Automatic annotation (TrEMBL):
Official protein name in the record: Protein-lysine N-methyltransferase EFM3
Pfam families: Methyltransf_16
SUPFAM superfamilies assigned to the protein according to its UniProt record, in alphabetical order: S-adenosyl-L-methionine-dependent methyltransferases
InterPro entries on file: Methyltransf_16, SAM-dependent_MTases_sf
GO cellular component, one term: cytoplasm
Gene Ontology molecular functions: S-adenosylmethionine-dependent methyltransferase activity
Annotated organism of origin: Canariomyces notabilis
Length: 333
């Protein structure tokens, strides 16, 4: 499947994009393209796509192929695609409300890390609940745009984490922790979150990405504002001697900003010279400004990293919204 438009469509589907960009009818009616799409997206033993998502994409795909065919003696619709659709239509699919409770495999391709010719496509696979907020109220059951954008920035500036001891705050699905540990050469990464439910799920991310049993990544529960030292005065679980702290989409809740900034200040005290990078999608400017003000009050110097969100048309994985600004802030003491 050499055509980049077909590959891009598959990557969007594997990321469960709600509106993937279908290739042209001229491409879709090609027999080899149809078979490649079947093998990558719909082959029963291979696919990881949710059944409802498969069926929706497959229905539109077949309709587009059908409408593109002028000469039925020359072109047709793949028997494998038609069989896959018949199989899905025959299933008793769970209600949408029940399906929303499930975790599904989501694959993010790391286009900045690809080389030519690529031996394999660098990617991160995670289990996510796209439409569910956990019982504790956390939004950490899916990967958000700011994490994807900060990941792109780190792929373009790997020296920020290569050979470094890294702490990710509010890890959620663990996208950044996996990226740093698996692809960017971090010495060790601590994936932390304040939700015990999310922390219990983080090891799944390590297993899915071949990081189980390694020394490169560990998981811990970390509630912002808590004392980072134990009763004997020792710092908890290696939180001293860190080189880099990462956080993405962790500034949206105004009530969480004071304990978050207190934790950042404590980490800076424990590891002088530490580099802190925080990425935030600008949903509420007032809340974001209150985070920056709180940082300055704690003695941090705040600067913006110059790294624009690429347009959707230029993205080749991962894919994320280009309509809202995403800021990457560097904090230093």
């Amino acid at each position: 499947m050499a055509d980049p438009r077909v590959s891009r469509f598959c990557r969007q589907c594997l990321q469960l994009e709600p509106a993937p960009e279908f290739p042209s009818g001229e491409l879709l009616r090609d027999e080899e393209v149809q078979e490649a799409l079947y093998e990558r997206l719909f082959a029963a033993k291979e696919t990881t796509l949710p059944q409802r998502y498969q069926l929706r994409i497959l229905k539109e795909l077949v309709a587009r192929i059908e409408s593109s065919i002028v000469d039925w003696d020359k072109h047709g619709i793949s028997n494998n695609l038609m069989s896959a659709m018949s199989r899905l239509l025959s299933l008793s699919l769970p209600p949408e409300t029940a399906a929303a409770q499930e975790r599904y495999s989501v694959t993010y391709y790391l286009s900045p890390l690809e080389t030519e010719p690529a031996a394999s496509d660098p990617h991160i696979t995670l289990l996510e609940s796209r439409f569910l907020i956990s019982a504790s109220g956390t939004t950490g059951l899916r990967t958000w745009e700011a994490a994807l954008h900060l990941g792109q920035y780190l792929c373009s500036n790997p020296s920020l984490v290569k050979g470094k001891r890294v702490l990710e705050l509010g890890s959620g699905t663990g996208y950044l922790a996996v990226l740093c540990a698996k692809y960017l050469g971090s010495e060790h990464v601590i994936a932390s979150d304040g939700s015990d439910e999310v922390v219990r799920m983080l090891p799944d991310s390590c297993i899915l990405n071949g990081l189980e049993g390694t020394e490169r990544v560990s998981v811990m529960e970390l509630n912002w504002g808590q004392d980072l030292g134990g009763s004997d005065g020792e710092v908890s679980q290696g939180l001293a001697d860190l080189d880099t702290v990462l956080g993405a989409d962790i500034t949206y809740d105004a009530s969480a900003i004071p304990p978050l900034v207190a934790t950042l200040s404590e980490l800076a005290r424990l590891s002088p010279g530490i580099s802190i990078l925080i990425a935030a999608t600008e949903r509420n400017r007032t809340t974001f400004e209150s985070f920056l003000d709180a940082c300055r009050q704690r003695g941090f110097a705040v600067s913006y990293e110059d790294f624009a969100v690429p347009s959707k048309a230029m993205q080749n994985g991962p894919f994320y919204n280009d309509a809202s600004p995403i800021h990457i802030c560097k904090l230093s003491v």
